[in-house]
From TrEMBL:
InterPro entries: HATC_C_dom, Hermes_transposase_DNA-db, RNaseH-like_sf, Znf_BED, ZnF_BED_domain_contain
Protein's UniProt name: Transposase
Subcellular location per the Swiss-Prot or TrEMBL entry: Nucleus
Compositionally biased spans, kind Low complexity: 507-519, 536-555
Pfam families: DBD_Tnp_Hermes, Dimer_Tnp_hAT
Residue span, BED-type domain: 73-119
Keyword tags: DNA-binding, Metal-binding, Nucleus, Transcription, Transcription regulation, Zinc, Zinc-finger
Organism: Mamestra brassicae (Cabbage moth)
Any one Gene Ontology molecular-function term assigned to this protein's record: DNA binding
PANTHER family membership: ZINC FINGER BED DOMAIN-CONTAINING PROTEIN 39, ZINC FINGER BED DOMAIN-CONTAINING PROTEIN 4
Entry GO CC: nucleus
Segments of this protein annotated with the region Disordered: 507-565
C-alpha cells in the first residue's frame, strides 16, 4: 500500500510553504506524483476530534495556561469531584470539566449531566452499595414537604443544601429506622432554651480551644496577623478586621479573629491599638509585644503598631505602583479613559448579549480592574470595534497599543495573585517578584510607545514605593527558600545575623556557645585547652603516682583489691566528663553556613512548607525559624474578582 497523508496534514504542509508563493496544484502534484504519497480526504470522526480537543485542554492545564476552579456551587454529589476549568482571564471554559480523581478532562453539555453520571469516578460516589435510591414518587413528596417547610417557617431556599440540614435529616432517618413511625416528634425535638444553652456551651468550648491555640502561637512567636481597615461608604463608619495567621503542625493556618467597628470614633493610633488589643483580649491574650503584624502604610496604623514588628502589605505596595504608573503618562491615561467610555456605552445601550464575554468595569480602588477592563475589550475586539464605529465613539488607541499594555499587565496579575495567597507561603516570593518585575520591564527596541512608557514608570515607582519599604524579614524569608539560598548576595550578612539572633538556643548550650562560637569552626586543632591536663595521671611517669605504694605494683598482676572497670577509670581519671556533647546542636552560624552550602533543585512540585519538616534532622534550628517566617502573609486582604 502506498504511503498516505491526511488532508489536515496536507493543508498544514502547504500552508508552511505558501509563503514562498508555491501554488496549490504544484504542491499537490509534488506530494502525489513525485513523492508517491496519496491523500486521504476523509475528515476525522467526531470521537477523534473530541479526544484531541480534550488533550489540548489537558495540556493547557498542565502548562499553567488554564487552571482548575476550587469550588463549585452546584448541589449534585458529582460536583464534589468535578470542577470547572478557568481560562487565562479567569472565565469558565465552556463545554469542559476536570475530574479531580482521575485527572481527566470531560466533555460537558450545559444542563446535561447524563454523560457525567456515567463517568467511572462519579459512579463510585453516586451509588455506593449501602445507599438506596428512593422512587420518583417519594422524591416528589420530599419536594412538597420541603416547600411547605419553607413557606411556613420562612428559611432560605438554600437551607436544604446546607451540610447541617443534611446531617439532621440523616439523624431522623436513623431514628425512624430504630423506633419506626410511632415517635412523638415534640418529645424528640428540643425546645428553644435548650438549643440556646447548648449553642452557648459549644461556643464557649470552641472559644477555649481557639484561645489556647492563639496563646501557643503568640508565645512561640508563630503569630503573624494581618490588619485591614476600611470605610463603609453607605453608613460612613470605619471598621477594623484581624485575620490571625500562624503555623501549626507544619501547615499554614488562619482564622478570622474578629471585626470591630470604630463606633464613629476618629481612627487615631490610640483608638486603633485599643481595638486591636481588645480583639486579642477576647481570646485571653493580653501581651502582643512579640506579634508580627502585616498592614498597609497608613500613618495611624503605623504609629499604633510602632512597638511591634510590622511588615508592609506587599500587594498593597504593588497596587500603588501599578495605580500610579499609568496616571503619570498621558498616553496611558487616554487608553484607560477610552476603555471606560466604551464600557459605559455598552452598559447603557445594553447589547451585552452580542458579546462572547462580559465587559468588565473599572474600579478606582483596584489596579487590576483596569487590566480586566482592557482585557475584556481585547477579547471582544471585533464586535466592540464594529459597534464603536456604528456609535461613532472616538478612542485614543488601537488594537496594537491595547494589546501591548495588556500583555505587560497580565504578568503583573500573576505576581499579584501569588502575593495575595494565604494557603501557601507567599513572603518568600516578594524578592523574586521584584526581580521578575525588573525582567518584565527591561526596555526593548521593539516595544510599542505605550508599553515602553508604562515600563519606565513602573520601574521608577517600584524603586520609590516598593523597594523603599522592604524589610529584613522579606530578605530572610527569601533566604530560607532552599532553592534560592545561594542566590541572595546583597545584605547576606544582615540576613544571616537576623537568622542567628532569632534561633532559640537551648539554655544548657548557651554558655558553651559563648566561649566557643568564634573559634569553633576555623581550626579546631589550634585551641590550646586540650593539652592542659597535667593533673590527670595518664602515664606512669606523672608526679602523683609515687605517693601511694600500691601504684608500684601493676593492678593486673597483683590484684590486692580487685576493682571494676568503672572504678579503674575513676582511679586514672579523677575528673571525668560526665555528659556527652554529641547531642548538642551546633551553633546557629555553623548551621546557617552548612545550609548555604547545600544546593536544592527547584522541581515543578517543590513545596517549601513540606521541605523544612522533611529536613528537620539536618537543620533543626533553622527549621523552626523557617516555619515561623514562612507563615507570615504578605498581604492584608485576599484578592477579589472585579464585578462586571
Amino acid at each position: 500500500m502506498a504511503p498516505y497523508i491526511k488532508i489536515e496534514e496536507f493543508l498544514c504542509l502547504w500552508s508552511s510553504v505558501s509563503a514562498v508563493n508555491c501554488p496549490f496544484f504544484v504542491f499537490h502534484d509534488a506530494i502525489t506524483s513525485l513523492l508517491g504519497f496519496s491523500i486521504i480526504w476523509k475528515p476525522k470522526d467526531p470521537v477523534t476530534k473530541m479526544a484531541e480537543a480534550a488533550d489540548f485542554v489537558k495540556n493547557k492545564i498542565n502548562n499553567g495556561t488554564y487552571s482548575v476552579a476550587n469550588k463549585n456551587k452546584r448541589t449534585s454529589v458529582i460536583w464534589s469531584i468535578l470542577c470547572d476549568i478557568l481560562k487565562e482571564d479567569e472565565t469558565v471554559l465552556d463545554g469542559w470539566l476536570f475530574c479531580r480523581q482521575c485527572q481527566k478532562v470531560l466533555k460537558f453539555l450545559h444542563k446535561n449531566t447524563s454523560n457525567l453520571s456515567r463517568h467511572k469516578c462519579c459512579l463510585t460516589i453516586r451509588r455506593p452499595s449501602e445507599l438506596i435510591i428512593v422512587s420518583e414518587n417519594d422524591k416528589k413528596v420530599a419536594i412538597e414537604k420541603c416547600t411547605q417547610w419553607v413557606v411556613r417557617d420562612c428559611p432560605p431556599f438554600s437551607a436544604v443544601t446546607g451540610a447541617g440540614f443534611k446531617k439532621k435529616v440523616k439523624f431522623f432517618l436513623q431514628i425512624g429506622a430504630i423506633y419506626g413511625e410511632q415517635v412523638d416528634v415534640d418529645d424528640l425535638l428540643p425546645d428553644p432554651p435548650t438549643l440556646s444553652r447548648k449553642a452557648k456551651s459549644d461556643a464557649e468550648e470552641k472559644r477555649s480551644l481557639i484561645s489556647s491555640e492563639i496563646k501557643k502561637a503568640v508565645d512561640s512567636g508563630r503569630a503573624s496577623p494581618r490588619v485591614d481597615m476600611w470605610t463603609d461608604q453607605y453608613v460612613q463608619r470605619n471598621f477594623l478586621g484581624i485575620t490571625f495567621h500562624y503555623e501549626g503542625e507544619f501547615k499554614l493556618c488562619d482564622m478570622i479573629l474578629g471585626l470591630k467597628s470604630m463606633n464613629f470614633q476618629i481612627s487615631t493610633a490610640d483608638n486603633i491599638l485599643m481595638k486591636i488589643k481588645g480583639l486579642f483580649s477576647e481570646f485571653n491574650e493580653e501581651n502582643i509585644d512579640i506579634v508580627k503584624f502585616v498592614t498597609d502604610r497608613g500613618a495611624n496604623i503605623t504609629k499604633a503598631l510602632e512597638g511591634n514588628t510590622r511588615l508592609n502589605c506587599s500587594s498593597h505596595l504593588l497596587s500603588n505602583v501599578l495605580e500610579k504608573s499609568p496616571n503619570e503618562a498621558n498616553e496611558l491615561k487616554k487608553i484607560v479613559k477610552s476603555c471606560k467610555k466604551i464600557v459605559k456605552y455598552r452598559k447603557k445601550s445594553n447589547p451585552q448579549h452580542t458579546l462572547e464575554t462580559t465587559l468588565k468595569s473599572a474600579r478606582p480602588t483596584r489596579w487590576n480592574s483596569n487590566y480586566k477592563m482592557m482585557k475584556s475589550i481585547l477579547d471582544n475586539w471585533r464586535r466592540v470595534d464594529k459597534i464603536r464605529g456604528e456609535a461613532d465613539i472616538h478612542v485614543d488607541f488601537n488594537k496594537s497599543s491595547l494589546l501591548a499594555v495588556v500583555d505587560i499587565l497580565g504578568d503583573f496579575e500573576r505576581i499579584f495573585k501569588k502575593l495575595q495567597t494565604s494557603s501557601s507561603p507567599s513572603i518568600c516570593f516578594v524578592l523574586p517578584s521584584i526581580n521578575k518585575i525588573l525582567e518584565l520591564c527591561e526596555p526593548n527596541i521593539l516595544d510599542h510607545s505605550a508599553a515602553a512608557l508604562l515600563k519606565e514608570r513602573i520601574l521608577e515607582n517600584k524603586r520609590k514605593i516598593w523597594m523603599a519599604h522592604l524589610s529584613i524579614w522579606h530578605k530572610a524569608a527569601f533566604f530560607l527558600y532552599p532553592p534560592a539560598a545561594h542566590l541572595q548576595e546583597e545584605d547576606i550578612l544582615e540576613t544571616k545575623g537576623l537568622c542567628s539572633s532569632q534561633i532559640q538556643v537551648p539554655l544548657s548550650h548557651t554558655s558553651s556557645l559563648e566561649s566557643t562560637e568564634t573559634p569553633r569552626t576555623p581550626d579546631p586543632p589550634e585551641t590550646p585547652e586540650t593539652p592542659e591536663t597535667p593533673e590527670t595521671p595518664e602515664t606512669p611517669g606523672t608526679p602523683e603516682t609515687p605517693e601511694t605504694p600500691e601504684s608500684l605494683e601493676s593492678p593486673n598482676l597483683f590484684p590486692k583489691n580487685p576493682k571494676t572497670l568503672s572504678s579503674e577509670n575513676e582511679f586514672f581519671f579523677p575528673k571525668p566528663v560526665t555528659e556527652s556533647n554529641s547531642n548538642f546542636p551546633e551553633s546557629p552560624p555553623d548551621e546557617i553556613r552548612r545550609y548555604m552550602r547545600q544546593r536544592v533543585p527547584l522541581s515543578q512540585n517543590f513545596e517549601v512548607i513540606e521541605w523544612w519538616p522533611n529536613n528537620a534532622h539536618l537543620y533543626p534550628q533553622l527549621r523552626k525559624l523557617a516555619l515561623k517566617l514562612l507563615s507570615i502573609p504578605t498581604s492584608r486582604a485576599e484578592l477579589t474578582e472585579c464585578p462586571p
